[in-house]
């Protein structure tokens, strides 16, 4: 799942470049396509990020921590 | 009436910030990070409010006035995906390290990570230099707003002074808790009023279809990126949101989170919040051409305020102006506080001997000095808000390889980090000196923005110099990379995973 999600991130970064809309002035869903496309992109980005948070959330605290961090305990002194 | 509404709004924000002082625990950590107690919603509002400034309302609408709706694809959609990813991959890691080692500021982390006190001090100097233009945007935005919304009856310096004074007061007394509370309120205000402004002004223009039809007739070039935003420019702008990885004010808010799960809501909701703010900005900026077809240069930054002044009755104009004030102040406060924390911890108390009270006092005095300096600069600055912001972001993006290497590359060395820092500073100064007065400046006229060579050279300097210098001490590597022992195979998400 994580691999798929990271692939989806790469795809999301690529499709931001909607070169096919460079000179397009037509309307789509009531707005110029140059705006509609990127508005929908934002909604899709949110969905992708939800999936990332849901399925690939990092263990940053507690016994599963990947950085040696305790859940809610006191912080260590800096060296 | 407009002034009364704005005055009431400023008093309201001030009282929220001051109210938080009742919970102040008198420690440096409480002043700087609210004792790491911020939950998901306030974290989202703080991060978003801090990030969205006069740039997002006045700058974006001004740039849309100049080049059209393509501005949304330049900044908003790239920020919508990259900034939450930075929260996910960088922010959560820095939060964990901050919690584990008690960090309060960026220089503390980088100084420890690279075993180099000098790096911490050099970084402080560079960060301050890069944040000042960002602060300037806010103070200028406040001035432009008050001046234009009153039809020029009130000079711009009064608006700049008013928001500076309010921010100065509640940041000094409330610290991060006051800032986070005020930010939450102000972010809700400017998001709501942004939508209200769009609906109201579009109705005044005869409705969305009518306004778009008029634009299609009078200025069809504004409906697409066309030649105004060539593909190279669009590609270049992808690197601008990397600046979020090194903003001291975002770093500060990351560290204030109560637990790592507090990041989930900001990560998921960020793209939607960006769309909610940027869509009204770019649409109204473009529609500004219908009312004010001939604004030139920095005047375009005020097109939104001019439209409000032209169409809205005084009470509504005051409310809408308060929305712009909210966006401005919600950034200004966090930026000032972050710099004040760095000054208190990394300069004033660099030997670690100062008392908590003395650190808080030093931070407050630094806040005063910084606000006064920014205000004085705003009196002489005459630049496009969008342009000024992009220059600031460019510098921060150049520093992104620093945090990336610090977090993910154990072979990165202090010399490599210093090389990246020096490369960014040198190239930024060079490009700024040749390009800051050239609207739409690109490297050699290629359409490629200075951010591309700066980020590339910074990354190259980090890698090459790190490989040419002795590796960091084993103890340092073990301290910052314990994950190697706990790393699970890809696909194992049952107990959480390590991105």
Task: Give the SSE map.
The complex is a heterodimer of chains A (79) and B (499).
Chain A (H helix, E strand, L loop, with lengths): L1 H14 L11 E2 L2 E2 H23 L24
Antiparallel strand pairs in A: 1-2
Helix pairs in contact in A: 1-2
Chain B lengths: L1 H18 L8 H6 L6 H12 L2 H14 L2 H32 L4 H8 L3 H33 L6 H49 L3 H11 L12 H6 L11 H8 L8 H28 L11 H9 L2 H35 L7 H25 L4 H14 L1 H9 L5 H22 L15 H18 L5 H7 L2 H4 L13
Task: Write a short abstract of this structure.
The complex is a heterodimer of chains A (79) and B (499). With 79 residues, chain A is mainly α.
Structure description:
The complex is a heterodimer of chains A (79) and B (499). By secondary structure, chain A is mostly helical. Chain A is 47% helix and 5% strand. Chain A contains two helices and two strands, in the order H-E-E-H. Chain A has a two-stranded antiparallel ribbon. Helices cover 74% and strands 0% of the residues of chain B. At the A-B interface, helix 1, strand 2 and helix 2 of A face helix 5, helix 9, helix 10 and helix 12 of B.
Essential attributes:
heterodimer; A: 79 residues; mainly alpha; two-stranded antiparallel ribbon; 2 strands; disordered C terminus; B: 499 residues; 21 helices
- In which order are the strands of the major sheet of chain A placed? 1-2
* Category by helix and strand content of chain A: mainly alpha
Radius of gyration of chain B: 22 Å
Output the helix-strand order of chain A: HEEH
pLDDT < 50 runs, ≥5 residues of chain B:
485-499
Rounded mean pLDDT of chain B is 85
